[in-house]
Amino acid sequence: MTGLEIAALAAMIAGAGVQYKASSDAQRRQREEIARSLASQRELQMQAEKKALDTAQTYDPGLRTAEQEQIATDIEQSLITPVSESQTIRAQQATTQGDVSDDYTQAKAAADLNTIKQAEQLARLLGKTTSASRLRMNEGIRLMDAGQAVDQLNSFSRGQQGADNIAIQQAGLVDPGMTFAGSLLQTAGSAGLMAGAGKPASTGTTYSLSPSALGANPSATIGTGLKPGMTMGLKPNSFVSAFPG
To answer: CB neighbours of 232 closer than 8 A, spacing ≥ 6?
Structure first.
């Protein structure tokens, strides 16, 4: 194999290697983009699941009871506080001038206390009756918020998936520069091999000496006394058959 053929073969192998690397790099980039997209979708799914589970946990009977009691207490306090303040102000304004008997003072104090107690009872009653509807309203609001949050995550997931598909397709494209370079190397190598195959192989010419060329000294070695340009009986395509003894 000639040097040209060796170089041509090396060029073809190098071209195939460049194209293989370009394809391998594209596959690697595509796998990385797919893995990143799956991880992003998984993260969004986990956020949606967490939102739904957190909302579902609020419907635990123990938590609902505690929340309803807290709502009732808040309603009761919101009703009792203004009534107590108003009753105190009225009691001060309704103070009788001059000396009054102890019976009147005690009766008035009892009446004021009774008014406050009635207000407290009414407030507690309203707190209990209103807390249930307020609890259901709060649960409805939380459920609506959770649904909107999940819908937003779902919408974002669809948009992200569309963008990821484009990125995956782009990552899977083979580098045209490397592909072109590999193709050039393979084309050059193929041309070199064809050129080497079309060139005829060189063959040497065999020469022999006739007995007369050695003169009177039959023991002389071939080539003794030969000078450039001398033929001395050289015959193409013949062999030395015998030397005189």
So the answer is: 209, 213, 226
Answer yes or no: are the C-beta atoms of 186 and 16 closer than 8 Å.
Answer: yes
Residue pLDDT, tens place only, 35-58: 999 999 999 999 999 999 999 888
Give residue limits of the domains in the chain. 3-198, 204-245
Maximum alpha-carbon separation in the chain:
182
SS3 assignment, position 107? helix
Report pLDDT digits (tens) over 123-173. 788 888 888 899 999 999 999 999 999 999 999 899 988 999 998 888 888
Q: Give Cβ neighbours of residue 188 (< 8 Å, ≥ 6 apart).
A: 8, 11, 15
Angle at CA of residue 87, ends 82 and 88, nearest 5°: 100
